[in-house]
Write a structure and sequence with these properties.
The complex is a heterodimer.
Chain A lengths: L1 H42 L3 H6 L6 E7 L6 H9 L6 E8 L5 H9 L1 E3 L13 E7 L5 E6 L4 H11 L4 E6 L2 E3 L3 H6 L9 E11 L2 H5 L12 H24 L9 E5 H7 L10 H14 L5 E13 L4 H21 L10 H16 L1 H17 L5 H30 L4 H10 L3 H4 L1 H16 L17
Parallel strand pairs in A: 1-2, 1-6, 2-5, 8-10
Antiparallel strand pairs in A: 3-4, 4-5, 6-9, 7-10, 8-9
Chain B lengths: L1 H4 L2 H4 L20 H46 L8 H12 L5 H16 L5 H9 L4 H14 L2 H13 L4 H9 L6 H4 L8 H10 L8 H7 L5 H11 L5 H9 L6 H14 L5 H6 L6 H14 L4 H7 L5 H13 L2 H8 L4 H10 L1 H13 L10
The chains are: A alpha/beta, B mainly alpha.
Chain lengths: 467, 379
Amino acid sequence: MIETFLGVTVLVCLGYLLLTNLSYAALVLVAFVENGVRRHEGASQDFDVLGESRFTIPVSVIVAAYNEETAIVSTVESLLDLDYPEFEVIAVNDGSSDGTLARLVDAFELEPYELFVRHVFPTEHVRAIYRGRSHPNLVVVDKENGGKSDALNAGLNVAKFRYVCGVDADTVFDREALLKGMRRVVEDPARIVGVTSHLTIAENPESVMSAPAGRRPIDRRPFMAYQHLDYLRAFFNNRLAWSRLGFMLCAVGAFQIWRRDVLEEVGGYSRTFTCEDIELTFRVHEKFLREGRDYEIHCLPDNVGTTEGPDTVRKLVSQRERWQRVINETVWHYRRMWFRKRYGSVGLVGAPFYLLTEVLAPVVELLAIATFALAVLLGLFDPAVFAVMLVAIAFLTGALTACAILLDDLQSRTYRVRDLARMLLLAPLDLVLYRPIIVWARLLGSWRFLRGDKAWHKFERNVRAPA
Amino acid sequence: MGQVLGRPWLRDCGDREPTPRIPRSREGWGHADDDDEVVDDLVLRVALVVLAISVPAWAVLSVFVVVGRLRYERLHRNPSERPLRKREAERLVRRVAGRPRTEWGRWRRVTALQRLERARHPAVPRLLRRVLHDPDPKIATAAIRTLGDVGDDWAIDLLVDALRDGDGARSRIASELERLAPAPGPKLVALLRDRNPVVRFWGATLLRPYPDLAEATLIELTWDSDPNVRAAAVETLGTRHGSAVETALSARLDDSEWFVRVHAARAVGHVVGAEAAPSITRLLSDNRWWVRTAAKDALRGMAADAVPSLLATLTHEDPFARNGAAEVLQDVGFVDFLALDNPRSPLLERIYAAGGERFREAAVARAAVAEPKAGVRAA
């Protein structure tokens, strides 16, 4: 009896593995096409013209900060240094208990000013508004703590331009980030309602971004390098393909450009979910598809910045379990979209893909580990076969990762050759050295989702040299 | 391969006796041992197939990444473009002249066009005209950028035609036209008389850097039936001077469309100056937020000259007008001046009353750390 059960379970897990990897491989093929098209498009783009033209659409950049005293000054400096004709930076201090506000006040010579704004989105009480003496396009909003969504909504109330770009406070941006992000929008502002772009990850983003493109290092620690590879796979293998197929499911919180009127229509960022980015993207899809409106949400392959990655296993687990929770929350909340023709490729492909590869993944992974271990222990499964299977999966992951590295390098030529080679060699070992942490984090996230936990569980920022 | 799938090399490693190979008939599947064997064998077969694909794929991709990058760097070290050979040029011309069906093919067409343009190939004008009419606006936009790089008279004509015909994104055409030298101004005047309001809009917008051109027509367009055209004409006239311009712009402060009022507020503030402060202050109580914001911007631009009108608005019945006036008084430095000069002034109290408690707190906090600012005076 148990043999039959284990046999069936092994086959189910094998089927799942084949299905998910076949879908990843199919997406990679689509991603190559999308990357090629965007690369040609980028090459024929003149950022100098775009950067000087008065017809380039102005943007309000909103950065929500909660206890970000180590990173906030670098982030805001990189934003103020953006090469873009007209933009404002709105930093929202979301009731930080550390020195976030004090750092901003000191660094940018802020003074309190009253600003009478629209209260389109309800938020927690705004305590004060500051403006920079040295930077007239910087506004800092100091408010009671209400979470990232609430802080972004407070920023939206202050924003004065038609497009807004929500960014994370732990990210250092490329000078051309907005030009890269808005290059598609300026050509079709009526249809393109949302854009996100590729971000990389590092233990200390400033050190990476200070190096010129083509010479940028990748953290030497394998732990950070694997996170970098994870980001590459997510952006290049998945999101580019989603974008091409019309179901870009996640405009990432670290860099998300939205048309402001669309955010007003859907009610702004929601406070009822653990994180804001995936849910908002789903909500916009849901509304536009339900109403049969023409729209596009894009993910671009251009590298727009580097975000701070967790530097310990504990922090990584905390971050990834939160991501897993919000994916589960969102996919479950929008279950009415699953397999519904009315919701086009989002309902027929995108949401089911998330369900298969993200929501069900921890369950199947747990089942697979338990089943294979039990089967080997009971002598029902040959350990050698198990080992061959692991090696096969490892190289499959390695091949998919190599595709992501290739796509990134074709697009931006950002990193040193020796770092590329190192990442390619590390790729097959992902299964052993990195994947177990992610599996654990996903299981934890799924468990907390079932328990209804919606806390942020913010991890401590990495220790950096003073700004 | 058969040897490998039969896996004697694996079996030899273990302690167990070699087990029979995968059953060839359905009858064999009923027994538990056979079930194990089937699963074992199936997993192994799948694993080996995956391995046979993934290892070479990983290796080939890895080599491709590293070699490709090294090759790119070698080419990049010496970026000077070699001259175009005759046969290569012919091939590129054929590629541009073709009608590719895929998006990929269309982009290759654009790349070929750009290569020919850099080589100053004589067929480029003819080819560009053709690519401009590509049904894919992205491709047409790429051609527009190439035209901007060319910048000759014939390229300007093509860009103006594209603007009129709607080939490619008009905002991109406008961006290219604005950076061109020789300036295409005189060629834009005809656009103001076009039947299509979108073309009139762009014509009016693009004439902003040419203060000597088409003033009468632009004034006429401030009464255009299309509000976008009125807004563009108002915006362009906002950089000019003269009584006719002032009259035309002031009339648009009462336009029925809010975005025309937005442009009118900014333009009047710039052209008419302090004399227009009372009529712009009136817009602080407009029912559209954007108009109120534009009025505030215009009044800020007038600095101390706007103060009398703003003080008169502090007791306005509309709260937006009251707090808008207080905000501008704060931004032009009048509040800080009073707070330092005479903190108990009744006038300051009136401004605080219009601005609210947080307004007062901010002013007091600034006054506590600031020195009087030079150049700011009481009205």
